[in-house]
Amino acid sequence: MTRDVGRGILLAAVLAGLSLAGLALGASMMPLDRVLAALWGQGSRPDTIILWNLRMPRVALAVLAGAALGIAGVLLQRATRNPLAAPSVLGIVDGAALGVLLFLLAFSNEANALTVSIYWQPVAAATGACVFAALVALLWRREVHNPMRLILYGVALAAFANALVVLLIIKGPVYRASQALIWLAGSVHEAEWRDVTTLAVALACLVPPVLLLCRRLDQMRLDDGSAQTTGLPVSATRASVLLLSVLLTAAAVSVVGGVGFVGLIAPHFARMLFGTTALPQLIAAASLGAAMVVGADLLARLAFQPLEVPTGALTALIGAPYFLFILFRQGRAHA
Question: Do the beta carbons of residue 255 and residue 65 sit within 8 Å?
């Protein structure tokens, strides 16, 4: 227990340090004393504008999106009993991308201007994510005893969504295609307070039901038969957990785009550090996911100046090899 508390404090310190670095570093460096002064409303006007209008929403959005994806990953892996399950693997992120692209193309006029408010874009992303998640669940419903089939269905539908995205980008206007590509890569560099508010409200609605399901999540570590003997309604619980995971993913990607592999890596490291009890793993995965996105965004804005590399490109650079490593290890375990 003492070791877990120590690790938790260390994890919180890492996240706080990355967040402060995100506030201090950028096109111009702001020393820590000026950051703290601006945070307390005692800094100069330029520092206050840079901090509160540009960097604070960016860091806050990265924290919230990473936390949502980390929690979603834990829920998916618990519901499927598959360590390879993740939003980016099951076609949920790709479905959201297709929803956004269809929105951009359907509601653009001949002058490449949107005919409806851009505020509808997160709704389009969430709709696309939910539709593809439902398709994966529909295909998998008769084979819930086979977690690997879930991965195969997800990969197949993700490939289908990607193919449609490519065709629509080729067919669509150049301006909309470039705008879609920025979203597809995943980034928080255009974060605004309305995005932070939207995601914060979504998390405020979705996290309490997740916490209420913690006991059932612990029971789901058992096989279906054993779990039923403990009084767990397995099918209903699995459906609820999957729905919450999809909604958390849809909420995150609708405002930050296709940031992938956070929902795969964060739950794994959370389990390594804090074990398989649901509540500690959920808290750790949320913190690790937040740290991953904040760290990736910080690296994206510093390593390639004056260019801004999409945050999703860096998370994929780390996540894709890790996914292959897990896949290889799983294959050897079943050999």
Answer: yes
The model's pLDDT over 120-155, given as tens digits with 9 standing for 90+, comes to 877 888 888 889 888 988 888 777 677 678 778 888
Angle (deg, nearest 10), helices 262-274 and 311-333 = 60
Q: How many CA atoms lie within 13 A of 331 on its CB side?
A: 6
Q: Distance between CA 247 and CA 106 in Å, rounded?
A: 24
CB neighbour list of residue 169: distance below 8 Å, 6 or more residues apart: 101, 177, 180, 181
Closest CA to 304 of 314, 289, 319, 290: 314
27 burial via Cβ count (<10 Å: 0-12, 13-18, 19+): exposed
Q: Please, what is the Cα angle at 296 between 331 and 304, to 5 degrees?
A: 120
Q: pTM score, two decimals?
A: 0.88
- 140 burial via Cβ count (<10 Å: 0-12, 13-18, 19+): buried
Classify 335 as helix, strand or coil: coil
Q: Which amino acid is at 244?
A: L
Question: For residues 250 and 130, what is the distance between their CA atoms, to the nearest angstrom?
Answer: 7
| Distance (Å, whole) CA 104 – CA 179 | 9
Residue 275: φ, ψ to 5°: 85, -165
Contact in structure between 261 and 318 (CB atoms under 8 Å): yes
Q: At what angle do helices 56-80 and 2-24 cross, to 10 degrees?
A: 140
Render pLDDT for 191-230 as a digit per residue (tens, 0 to 9).
889 889 989 999 999 999 999 999 999 888 877 778 788 8
41: left (phi over 0), alpha (psi -120 to 50) or beta: left
Tokens 């008769």 identify what position?
142
Q: Are 154 and 89 in contact (CB under 8 A)?
A: yes
Around 254, how many Cα atoms within 13 Å sit in the side-chain half-sphere? 30
Report the 10 Å Cβ neighbour count for 95.
32
